[in-house]
């Protein structure tokens, strides 16, 4: 399998190269050259398979020989052995029509673990083959940082430097990062706010000497392998609910458009998905873009579902590329227009294409709280604010198929919002009991590029190890 850029001007890559790459050199994102198709019989044959076996079948055509099925099986067995539920992503029935797909049984209690745990092992495997090292740098306001740190701790050939704004992340979020004591994990508390941290990370990537000397790498959701790893649970859930003989719909709490794009990929691969519901909070750019064509950036509103407080959803470009007939140069022109002016109009023809698969819904904070109460009253389930946005959207949908709402975070990660809506404080799972007392390790640094680069240069390894004499 080859991967091509959505802007048509970067070289195509194989799976190993695309896993280690960030953005394409033309500013685009990598997508598979063609969508692998699964015949009905191949989907039926997934019935009763474990999560790991399902993952091997779904990912094998994308990996295209970069790893054998046996190597994939070993890798997934290690990655998902860390989850605290034997089904990895269990389905929970809410009523006759609604289901939750719990994606939060990994080490940091959010769905990002599902992809990140395997991505860490893919990095280690591929870097080992060519004796290379990478330096992962990120700025986090909480969740992505802890998922990346947990996945990359103690991996060979990877050093992780995670910047968080000192005193501005919750204690649980900070401790999920700083209590991971590993020689390759470096938490940096920046004397500044999140924007300062993000600006410093961008500046390091733009410092091309520094970036190439230490092979800087990012692990955000533009990484193709992360998306591929998320396709798996759409197959796993749909097959359990009757696919390929019965279509299923999914409602997805959406921020960067990575998770719902993985659902779209599953549909392109032949999984009978009826509707994909793009659920947004008050930050509703995707709802406007797919509904009326108004793809224009507003200001970010802070909500109780912070992982969806996003204006520009990077992965949306991948969908637009398909909707525009996979014409890279036309897509590049349209994206450059969007970047220059902060808005483009999605043409009616492309919106009609999207409407074959997608519905959208904007859910405000009152509806979000009502969905939390409904889940508690009807089935005794506590759900987090992100999940509640998607459940509210699912309840509004008029489709006939069963609707699976993706539960993207454990409710205990957002205790205050859950208490405010339901009066009940969800408990931290047993695996996090030691979190509040464990040893912490982090370094406080000023928001100064030179000081931070010096700190990293002392600890990171050059991209290619110097050959031993
Ligand atoms: C990241 C995240 C989302 C949004 O997922 P995208 O792939 O960015 O659309 C939703 N909920 C939670 C809890 C998240 O951490």
From TrEMBL:
Q: Which InterPro entries match?
A: Ser/Thr_deHydtase_PyrdxlP-BS, Thr_synth_N, Thr_synth_N_sf, Thr_synthase-like, Threonine_Synthase, TrpB-like_PALP_sf
Task: Specify whether Lyase is a keyword of the entry.
Answer: yes
Keyword annotations = Amino-acid biosynthesis, Lyase, Pyridoxal phosphate
A matching Pfam family:
Thr_synth_N
Instruction: List required co-factors.
Output: pyridoxal 5'-phosphate
So what EC number does this one have? 4.2.3.1
Has keyword Cell wall biogenesis/degradation?
A: no
Which reactions appear under catalytic activity for this entry?
A: O-phospho-L-homoserine + H2O = L-threonine + phosphate
Annotated PROSITE patterns? DEHYDRATASE_SER_THR
What region holds the Threonine synthase N-terminal domain? 2-80
User: Which family does the UniProt entry place this protein in?
Assistant: Belongs to the threonine synthase family.
UniProt-recorded name of the protein: Threonine synthase
């Amino acid at each position: 399998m080859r991967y091509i850029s959505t802007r048509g001007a970067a070289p195509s890559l194989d799976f190993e190269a695309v896993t280690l790459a960030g953005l394409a050199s033309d500013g685009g994102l990598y997508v598979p050259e063609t969508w692998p198709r699964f015949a009905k019989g191949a989907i039926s044959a997934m019935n009763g398979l474990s999560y790991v076996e399902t993952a091997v079948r779904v990912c094998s055509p994308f990996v295209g020989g970069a790893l054998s099925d046996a190597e994939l099986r070993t890798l997934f067995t290690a990655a998902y052995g860390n989850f605290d539920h034997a089904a990895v992503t269990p389905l929970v029935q809410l009523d006759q029509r609604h289901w939750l797909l719990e994606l939060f049984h990994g080490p940091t209690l959010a769905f990002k673990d599902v992809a990140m745990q395997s991505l860490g092992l893919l990095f280690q495997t591929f870097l080992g083959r060519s004796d290379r090292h990478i330096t992962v740098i990120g700025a986090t306001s909480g969740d992505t940082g802890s998922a990346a740190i947990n996945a990359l701790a103690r991996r060979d050939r990877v050093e992780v430097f995670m910047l968080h704004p000192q005193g501005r992340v919750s204690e649980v979020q900070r401790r999920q990062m700083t209590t991971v004591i590993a020689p390759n994990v470096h938490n940096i508390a920046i004397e500044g706010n999140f924007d300062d941290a993000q600006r410093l990370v961008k500046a390091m990537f733009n410092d091309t000497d520094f970036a190439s000397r230490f092979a800087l790498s990012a692990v955000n959701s533009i990484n193709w392998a992360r998306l591929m790893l998320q396709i798996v649970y759409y197959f796993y859930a749909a097959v359990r609910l009757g696919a390929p003989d019965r279509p299923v719909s999914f409602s997805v709490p959406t921020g960067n458009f990575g998770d719902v794009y993985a659902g779209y990929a599953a549909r392109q691969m032949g999984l009978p998905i009826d509707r994909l519901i793009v659920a947004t909070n008050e930050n509703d750019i995707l709802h406007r873009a797919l509904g009326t064509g108004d793809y224009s950036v507003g200001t970010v509103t802070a909500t109780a579902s912070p992982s969806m407080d996003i204006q520009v959803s990077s992965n949306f470009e991948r969908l637009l590329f398909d909707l525009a007939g996979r014409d890279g140069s036309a897509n590049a022109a349209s994206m450059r227009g969007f970047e220059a002016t902060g808005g483009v109009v999605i043409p009616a023809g492309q919106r009609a294409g999207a409407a074959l698969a997608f519905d959208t819904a904007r859910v405000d904070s009152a509806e979000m709280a009502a969905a939390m109460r409904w889940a508690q009253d009807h089935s005794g389930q506590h759900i987090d604010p992100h999940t509640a946005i998607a459940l509210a959207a699912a309840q509004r949908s008029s489709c006939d198929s069963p609707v699976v709402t993706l539960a993207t975070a454990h409710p205990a990660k957002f205790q205050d919002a859950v208490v405010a809506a339901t009066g009940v404080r969800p408990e931290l799972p047993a695996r996090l009991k030691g979190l509040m007392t464990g040893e912490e390790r982090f370094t406080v640094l000023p928001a100064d590029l030179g000081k931070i680069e010096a700190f990293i240069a002392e600890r990171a390894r050059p991209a290619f190890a110097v050959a031993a004499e």
